[in-house]
Write a structure and sequence with these properties.
- It is a single chain.
- The chain contains 16 helices and four strands.
- The chain has 281 residues and is mostly helical.
- Among the domains are: 62 residues, DNA polymerase, domain 1, CATH 1.10.150; 70 residues, Orthogonal Bundle (DNA polymerase, domain 1), CATH 1.10.150; 60 residues, Tex RuvX-like domain-like (DNA polymerase, domain 1, Orthogonal Bundle), CATH 1.10.150.310.
């Protein structure tokens, strides 16, 4: 057994020489980076020499120094003048020192129905820095004919009319119209806060610009309406709509809101909301 093991583990002279060469090669590979680093020491850059070279370069080609200034060039070379930011041509924005990216953001804002009603609105544009606004603010000249003179009636306004409101673009206009159609019209201005995305702050900005004529609301014929159509009413959930239809089937037509109050899952708050929309023909 020992003889067999010795035979398997023993190496010939040729094999020993091969192993020695392999070890030497591995050592050489591992040592190579250190040898290279020792033979090629980094030279120290003299900052004074660099400054002197740049000064000579700037003297020979002043335009190159301007080009190297990057994004600050436009700010240093503003051509300031009185301007109305609404629908201002891109070329004029460029003269005022704005970059192509900033101009593209403004034009995209306008394309979505955005409008500037006061100088501070320019500051709200994404990409306009504090420095940009401070430079431009004294020159912003928005005509006195402002949003304060615009009053929009919510039940009859189309999408174009709604986008005249401060902060209302095409997306919000579509949401308002969609909600108005489901509701049957607005009874009061505060219902605008029920539209997705219009919070208290946005409503406070809009409330002086809107009015509501409740005579334009579309009534629900509660004794004839189907489940699918009544389901569109935002104030009623699936179970409440089912209960209204079922109660009508069991007890006959509704005569007044008092009949609806007999339905246990419809509370007084819901009744107050839906009452202006009901017709008992």
């Amino acid at each position: 057994m020992k003889a067999q093991l010795k035979q398997h583990l023993s190496l010939t002279k040729k094999e020993w020489n091969g192993m020695l060469v392999l070890v030497l090669l591995i050592a050489a590979v591992l040592a190579a980076p250190y040898v290279y680093q020792w033979q090629h020491k980094d030279s120290i850059i003299n900052a004074k020499d660099v400054d002197a070279a740049l000064a000579q370069l700037n003297k020979a080609n002043p335009g190159m120094a301007k080009a190297s200034a990057g994004s600050n060039v436009s700010a240093k070379h503003r051509s300031l003048f009185k301007f109305n930011p609404n629908n201002l041509p891109a070329a004029d924005w460029a003269k005022l020192g704005l970059s192509d990216k900033q101009i593209a953001i403004i034009k995209n804002y306008e394309a979505k129905g955005g409008k500037f009603y006061k100088p501070a609105d320019v500051k709200k544009i994404y990409g306009i820095t504090e420095a940009d606004y401070k430079a431009l603010a004294p020159y912003i000249d928005i005509p006195k004919e402002s949003i304060n003179n615009i009053i929009v009636e919510l039940n009859t306004a189309d999408s174009a009319k709604l986008t005249q409101l401060s902060g209302i673009g095409p997306t919000f206009a579509k949401r308002i119209i969609y909600y108005r159609e489901r509701l049957g019209g607005f009874v009061n201005k505060e219902q605008l806060k029920e539209v997705f995305g219009i919070d208290d702050l946005k409503y406070d900005e809009l409330k002086t610009q809107i009015k509501v004529d409740a005579s334009h609301i579309r009534k629900i014929e509660i004794n004839a309406i189907t489940f699918d159509k009544l389901r569109l009413m935002p104030y009623l959930n699936y179970k409440q709509v089912s209960a209204i239809i079922e109660y009508r089937n069991q007890h006959g037509n509704y005569a007044s809101i008092a009949d609806l109050s007999n339905i246990a899952i419809i509370d007084e708050g819901i009744l107050r909301k839906i009452e202006p929309y009901l017709s008992y023909k």
